[in-house]
Automatic annotation (TrEMBL):
<dbReference type="InterPro" id="IPR037478">
    <property type="entry name" value="YwkD-like_dom"/>
</dbReference>
<feature type="domain" description="VOC">
    <location>
        <begin position="2"/>
        <end position="125"/>
    </location>
</feature>
<dbReference type="InterPro" id="IPR004360">
    <property type="entry name" value="Glyas_Fos-R_dOase_dom"/>
</dbReference>
<dbReference type="Pfam" id="PF00903">
    <property type="entry name" value="Glyoxalase"/>
</dbReference>
<dbReference type="InterPro" id="IPR029068">
    <property type="entry name" value="Glyas_Bleomycin-R_OHBP_Dase"/>
</dbReference>
<dbReference type="InterPro" id="IPR037523">
    <property type="entry name" value="VOC_core"/>
</dbReference>
<keyword id="KW-0479">Metal-binding</keyword>
<dbReference type="GO" id="GO:0046872">
    <property type="term" value="F:metal ion binding"/>
</dbReference>
<dbReference type="InterPro" id="IPR051332">
    <property type="entry name" value="Fosfomycin_Res_Enzymes"/>
</dbReference>
<protein>
    <submittedName>
        <fullName>VOC family protein</fullName>
    </submittedName>
</protein>
Length: 125
């Protein structure tokens, strides 16, 4: 029917929480600490849509994300104005690649990354 959520394990919970809430502007639905797992779970939304579970675990192994490693390739967020979103993220001191054009849809997009180097795409709708 639809994707319910995406789960992300971060290496530094406070840095990733700040990134996803303050830099990307996702809204906190719920935050819990699970003592038995020494793990935070942060449920995040874009508008009214529940989209990301951000987890922390002690000493998670690194997962390569570039170049083209197996597994999740990237997360893509749709935006109304690609130029405005890119400038907003640059003002927040985030490195953003140049805007490109999708060869199939002719839509504009660019990539950046989260604190753990997970590639994030912003795609103009």
């Amino acid at each position: 029917m639809k994707i319910h959520h995406i789960a992300i394990i971060c290496s530094d919970y406070e840095i990733s929480k700040k990134f996803y809430t303050e830099v990307l502007g996702l809204h906190i639905i719920r935050e819990v600490y699970r003592e038995e797992r020494q793990s935070f779970k942060l449920d995040l939304a874009i508008g009214d849509h529940y989209v990301i579970e951000l987890f922390s675990f002690p000493y998670p192994p690194e997962r390569p994300s570039r170049p083209e490693a197996c597994g999740l390739r990237h997360l893509a967020f749709s935006v109304e104005n690609i130029n405005e979103k890119r400038e907003e993220l640059i003002r927040k001191e985030l490195y953003c690649e140049d805007i490109r054009i999708d060869e199939f849809t002719q839509k504009k997009f660019f990539f950046t990354q989260d604190p753990d180097h997970l590639p994030l795409e912003f795609y103009e709708m």
